[in-house]
TrEMBL record:
InterPro entries on file: DUF674
Taxonomic source organism: Carex littledalei
Name by which UniProt lists this protein: DUF674 domain-containing protein
Domain of life from the UniProt record: Eukaryota
Length: 244
């Protein structure tokens, strides 16, 4: 695997008001927007794990530490990482944890029914289970005959992510999003009541793992995320964050 593949980069095009030193909004393609929307699919336990060493608002850090330190004799779980490092598919993890197995396709579930040879299931078994060998509630025969489960074909089969492309989207400083259009951009400029348009400048920024962690942390604490991460001086040394 190449270095580029290990540390992928995405781009945002920022519109910055140099007078107030803030990001008014950003233009994002499908990949960058998929990354931001993917925050919503990251389990809270994994967020705390990714931001280990940083203060997270509220009590999540406390409950996380409690589970870390709880003696195994009190746990029903065979692996406490189910809570400490939970896994769900999220496009964001491609940057936050490039080597994460979170996006691996889980093995398909297997379903079973009885053989349908005994009364009252003869020729018409009505129960199925995902636990092979369970007794059929009707005929009491073991449910070991495997069945094929057919899913409805997905319209976007083979495509990943959450939004359609190739479309440009507007991302506000608080990470609210909308489709990009000339009218919407003009309306936003009017909303900001800018007096000197010559103070506006475009800035294209790239972000990889380090900046992705900054975006994740800022999204939990701030309503000026893009400004905090790409314009303002960083408030924390993000290199101290645990990313493995």
């Amino acid at each position: 695997m190449t270095t580029q593949e290990k540390d992928p980069k995405l781009q945002l095009k920022l519109l910055v008001d140099q007078h107030s030193n803030r990001v008014l909004f950003a233009e994002a393609g499908k990949e960058a927007l998929d990354f931001l929307l993917g925050f919503l699919r990251i389990p809270l336990g994994l967020v705390v794990h990714l931001l280990t060493g940083e203060q997270i608002p509220g009590s999540l850090t406390s409950i996380y530490s409690s589970i870390q330190n709880l003696d195994e004799s009190y746990l029903m779980l065979s692996d406490r990482d189910v809570l400490l490092k939970p896994r769900l598919p999220s496009v964001s993890l491609l940057l936050l944890e490039p080597d994460s197995p979170a996006l691996a396709t889980p093995p398909p579930k297997r379903y079973y029914r009885c053989s349908g040879t005994n009364h009252p299931c003869r020729g018409n078994p009505i129960y199925m289970t995902n636990v092979g060998g369970m007794p059929c509630p009707n005929c009491r025969l073991p449910m070991v005959t495997e069945m094929a489960f057919l899913e409805k074909p997905k319209a976007d089969s083979g495509k990943s992510g959450y939004v359609k492309g190739p479309i440009t989207y507007l991302v506000m400083d608080d990470l609210s999003v909308m489709p990009m259009s000339t009218i919407s951009a003009i309306a936003l400029l009017k909303k900001f009541q800018l007096k000197d348009l010559s103070m506006l400048c475009e800035m294209t920024v790239e972000f990889g793992k380090k900046e992705s962690l900054e975006l994740l942390k800022a999204s939990l604490q701030s309503t000026t995320v893009l400004t905090d991460v790409f314009i303002s001086k960083p408030r924390v040394d993000i290199d101290r964050l645990q990313t493995t």
